[in-house]
Write a structure and sequence with these properties.
Helices cover about 75% and strands about 0% of the residues. The chain has about 500 residues and is mostly helical.
Length: about 500
C-alpha cells in the first residue's frame, strides 16, 4: 500500500547489498525475506487486533465483573498509557541493543500479560494486566517495522513495508469481527487467549529467520529518565480525568494525581531540552507545518478514540446488537480505509496535502454527525451503515496525506522520530478522549446499563467528535501549506496504513 512504484524483485539474496555488519540484505522474493515479513506481520497483528477486540468485549466485561463505566475506561486506558508512554523509549532500546531482541522480549511479554488478562479474577487484576500488556505492545510495535527497514535491500524495502502495512491492516479489520465472535461463542477471556498461539508462532519464526540489527550510531545511553517521566505523567493525568467525575474533582487523590502528572510532563519537556540523546528532539517543533499536522492528528484521533470507545457499547446496550453483529458493523470503516488510502496518498503526492487534510477531517466529522441518527431500533442499513461509510471515506482521505506531511516537515535524518512522535500524539489523543468523553457527556457510573441515558450521552459524544474534526479541517486549511514541486527522484515515498488505531510507528532515526 505505497504510492511509490514497487521495484521488481529478483534473486534470493543480493551479495552486493550488505548491512552494517557485513551480512547480505534480504530480497522480497526470497524465502528468507518472506519468513521475516511473516514474523513482523504476525507480531504487529497481535497488538493491532488487541486494540480493536477489547472495545467489542466491554459490555461483556462489565456484566461479568459488575463494574461501572470508569472501570471499563481503565481497561482501555491502562493499555494505552504504557504503550504511548514507552513507544519512543522502546524504539531507542531496539536501535541500541538489537531490534530482534527487543521485539522478541515484547512478544513474550505481551503473551504473558495476555494470559494474565484472560485469567484475571477481578477488575483490578485485569487492569494491572492491561498495564503490562501495554508495555509488551510498546516493545514489539516499533521493532516490527524497524526490522524490515534494517533487513531488506533498499530496492525491495518499500515493497516489504507495503506488504507489512496491508497485511497488518487486515488484522485490524478482522479484529472487531473476531472479538465479537469469540465473546458471543464463548467468553471475553478468549480475546486474550487467542494471542498465545500467535505469539508462539512469532517467537519461533523470529528466532530462526529474523536477523539481528542495530543502529551503529546509537552508542550512548538510552533516555530512561525521559521514558519514565512521560509514562508516569500520562498515568497521573489519566487517573485524574477518569476518577474526577466519580470521586470529585476536589478529592485529594484526584488533585494530587492531576497536578503530579502535569508537573511530571513539564519535567519531561525540561529533561528533553537538556538530555544529550533525547527521546523527543524538541527542535522538531520549530516547524509550523510539523506542529499543525500534529495538532490535526490530535484532534482527529482524539475524536476517533472517544467516539469509538462508546460506539460498541451503544450498538450492544442500546440497539440490541450481539457482540458479533457489533463487530461486523464496524468493518466498513477499516475496509474502506485500506482500499482507498494508497490512492489518497498518490493524489496528495501530485497536488499537495492541504486539500485532503482540510476535507478529510470534515468528512470524518460528517460521519460522526450521522451517528446522532442511531436510535434504539439500530437499523443497520439506514442508521449505522451511512455513518460508518462516511467515516471510512473521511479517514481514507485524511490519513496518508497527514502522515506524509509529518514526515515531509521533518529533516530527513529525523523522519523515523517524526513518525514515531506522530504515532504517540495519536495514542495520547485517544487516551485523553477515552478518559474525558464519558464525563463530558454525562454517562459515568452505571449509565451504560440504562439505554436511554447512554444513548443521549453517545449522541453528545458524536457531536463533540464532529466538532473536533471540523476544527481540525479548518486548522489544516489555514495552517498546512503544499510543498514546492520537487523532482520525482527526490520525493519521499508515502506509506499508507490503516487509520483505525494510529499512524504506523517507526523506531528512531536510522540510516538505510
Amino acid at each position: 500500500m505505497l504510492s511509490s512504484s514497487d521495484p521488481t524483485a529478483s534473486g534470493a539474496l543480493v551479495a552486493t547489498s550488505e548491512a552494517a555488519g557485513g551480512e547480505a540484505l534480504l530480497r522480497y522474493s526470497s524465502a528468507a525475506g518472506r519468513w521475516v515479513l511473516a514474523a513482523t506481520v504476525l507480531g504487529s497483528m497481535i497488538a493491532s487486533i488487541d486494540a480493536t477486540v477489547v472495545g467489542i468485549a466491554l459490555p461483556a466485561l462489565g456484566r461479568s465483573f459488575h463494574i461501572g463505566l470508569a472501570s471499563l475506561q481503565w481497561v482501555v486506558t491502562a493499555y494505552t498509557v504504557t504503550l504511548a508512554g514507552l513507544l519512543l523509549f522502546a524504539g531507542a532500546l531496539g536501535d541500541r541493543y538489537g531490534r530482534r531482541r527487543v521485539f522478541l522480549v515484547g512478544v513474550v511479554w505481551f503473551a504473558v500479560a495476555s494470559l494474565l488478562c484472560a485469567l484475571a479474577p477481578a477488575p483490578g487484576a485485569l487492569i494491572a494486566a492491561r498495564v503490562l500488556q501495554g508495555v509488551g505492545a510498546a516493545l514489539l510495535t516499533p521493532g516490527s517495522l524497524a526490522i524490515l527497514e534494517a533487513s531488506f535491500d533498499p530496492a525491495d524495502r518499500s515493497r516489504a513495508i507495503g506488504a507489512w502495512s496491508g497485511l497488518s491492516g487486515v488484522g485490524t479489520a478482522i479484529g472487531p469481527f473476531l472479538g465479537g465472535w469469540l465473546v458471543e461463542a464463548a467468553s471475553w477471556r478468549l480475546i486474550f487467549l487467542i494471542n498465545l498461539p500467535v505469539a508462539a508462532a512469532v517467537v519461533a519464526l523470529s528466532w530462526r529467520h529474523v536477523p539481528e540489527s542495530r543502529d551503529p550510531a546509537a552508542t550512548g545511553r538510552v533516555d530512561v529518565t525521559g521514558g519514565a517521566l512521560v509514562t508516569f505523567g500520562l498515568m497521573g493525568v489519566t487517573y485524574a480525568l477518569i476518577e474526577g467525575p466519580s470521586s470529585g474533582w476536589a478529592s485529594p487523590a484526584v488533585l494530587a494525581a492531576f497536578h503530579g502528572g502535569a508537573i511530571t510532563l513539564a519535567a519531561f519537556l525540561l529533561w528533553e531540552q537538556r538530555s544529550p540523546q533525547p527521546l523527543v528532539p524538541l527542535s522538531l517543533f520549530s516547524s509550523a507545518q510539523f506542529d499543525a499536522a500534529n495538532v490535526v492528528t490530535f484532534l482527529v484521533y482524539g475524536a476517533l478514540g472517544g467516539a469509538l470507545f462508546l460506539l460498541p457499547i451503544e450498538l450492544q446496550q442500546v440497539c440490541g446488537y450481539t457482540p458479533l453483529q457489533a463487530g461486523t458493523a464496524l468493518l466498513p470503516v477499516t475496509v474502506i480505509t485500506l482500499a482507498l488510502s494508497a490512492r489518497s496518498g498518490a493524489v496528495a503526492t501530485r497536488i499537495g496535502p492541504r486539500l485532503q487534510m482540510s476535507l478529510g477531517p470534515i468528512t470524518v466529522g460528517a460521519g460522526f454527525a450521522l451517528f446522532t441518527q442511531v436510535t434504539a431500533s439500530g437499523d443497520y442499513m439506514t442508521q449505522v451503515l451511512p455513518a460508518v461509510t462516511v467515516l471510512g471515506l473521511g479517514l481514507a482521505i485524511t490519513v496518508a496525506p497527514l502522515t506524509a506531511t509529518v514526515l515531509a516537515a521533518a529533516p530527513a535524518r529525523r523522519a523515523g522520530t517524526a513518525s514515531a512522535l506522530n504515532n504517540d500524539v495519536a495514542r495520547a489523543a485517544s487516551l485523553i478522549a477515552v478518559a474525558t468523553f464519558p464525563a463530558a457527556t454525562g454517562i459515568t457510573g452505571d449509565a451504560y446499563l440504562h439505554p436511554e441515558r447512554f444513548s443521549a450521552g453517545f449522541h453528545s459524544a458524536a457531536v463533540i467528535a464532529c466538532a473536533l474534526c471540523l476544527f481540525g479541517g479548518l486548522l489544516a486549511a489555514t495552517a498546512i501549506r503544499n510543498p514546492r514541486r520537487a523532482p520525482a527522484a527526490s520525493a519521499r515515498p508515502v506509506r499508507s496504513h490503516c487509520a483505525i488505531d494510529a499512524p504506523p510507528p517507526q523506531s528512531p532515526d536510522r540510516s538505510p
